[in-house]
Amino acid sequence: MKPLIIGHRGASAHAPENTMAAFRLALEQGADGVEFDVRLSRDGIPVVIHDDTLKRTGAHPAKVSSLTLSELKKIDVGGWFKSNERSYQNEPLPTLSEVFELFAKASGLLYLEMKSEPDCLSELAEACCHSLRQSTLKSRVIVECFDLNGIQLIKQLDSDIKTAALFEPNLRTPPGITSSKKLIDKALSVEADEIALHHRLASPRTVLSALDAGLNVVVWTVDDAKWINLATSRNIAALITNTPERMISARSHVSRI
Questions:
Q1: Is 240 exposed, middle or buried (0-12, 13-18, 19+ CB in 10 A)?
Q2: 165 has which bridge partners?
Q3: How far apart are CA 147 and CA 167, in angstroms?
Q4: How far is CA 133 from CA 31, 141, 161, 165, 219, in A?
Q5: What are the pLDDT digits (tens) for 164-210?
Q6: Domains of the chain (ranges, CATH numbers)
Q7: Which of 15, 23, 119, 224 is least surrounded by CB atoms within 10 angstroms?
Q8: CB atoms < 10 A from the CB of 159, how many?
């Protein structure tokens, strides 16, 4: 099985991450979908941005949660990105609804990562579920979160929404759950449909154990073409990458295993 290629925050190696420009470029390059991050504005609107502040991508000191959608829309989140091909000045921060509108007219999966402080996670989960119900994309969206309480909340709100338990080594993975069995048990305990592993955790043993447990396996974030062969031989469902065009090209040269 050849893996799906999912653009990490869009085609983020060639356009500013988590912007409509990056998502459109990923689609133009032939990506099978995109991964992106969602937070809440001060007025409770789901918006697409990774960091909790605008410092890195918007040259603005404020926290995302301290600004209304109207205020967030005035901030340029594309001008920081350096490209020889084009300028991304005045690229606005997208809402979740705008991303859904784009993909309503295009094929592809959407890996929606919830980003929130624990005390706001329930509000974010409810907002994401509401947006999904208002869209036509529910069957194509996979909600993921490092805080597995978020996965549990999504399943309680709507058991039909697909989810992925996110794991990475060191910082976010609590001590003692990095073994294959414990990672998979954690994912199953919150009724996740998939397990999204940092590439350092995607050992053959862990991948096989996850598949045996009925979990689709997604690996992030990989830009090295060697992962196409690895994913094909291990039946990994999808690779999340900053460079979808390069990985799609590599995939086209791999024979089916």
A1: buried
A2: 145, 195
A3: 9
A4: 25, 11, 10, 21, 27
A5: 999 999 765 555 556 899 999 999 999 999 999 999 999 999 999 99
A6: 4-51+95-252 (3.20.20.190)
A7: 119
A8: 9
